[in-house]
Amino acid sequence: MNIFVNEQALEVAPDCNIEELLEVLDKPLQGTAVAVNQNILSRSLWGDYFLQEGDQISLFQAIAGG
Question: Is the pLDDT of residue 5 over 90?
């Protein structure tokens, strides 16, 4: 199944959820925010949201600073 992560095409398994996607991409669960099709997805839903063909995923890293 094909999705887009930060505007880059990526092929994933048909039963892949957001948590699994982050593991595949070697992204930390802590400090990461996820938007699916331009809608922020709450961390509590990451394990329940199964990716769909053509989904547009945006990943953001929290950056500490001051």
Answer: yes
- Residue 25 is encoded by which pair of tokens? 């991409």
The closest of 56, 53, 62, 51 to 5, measured between CA atoms, is 56
Q: Where does residue 58 fall: left (phi above 0), alpha (psi -120 to 50 degrees), or beta otherwise?
A: beta
* Inter-residue contact 55 to 2 (CB < 8 Å): no
Q: For 45, phi and psi rounded to 5 degrees?
A: -100, -5
Q: 18 lies in a domain?
A: yes
The residue segments making up the domain with residue 45 are 2-61
The confidence score (pLDDT) of residue 37 equals 98
Our measurement of the distance from residue 66's CA atom to the centroid of its chain's CA atoms, rounded to an integer in Å, reads: 27
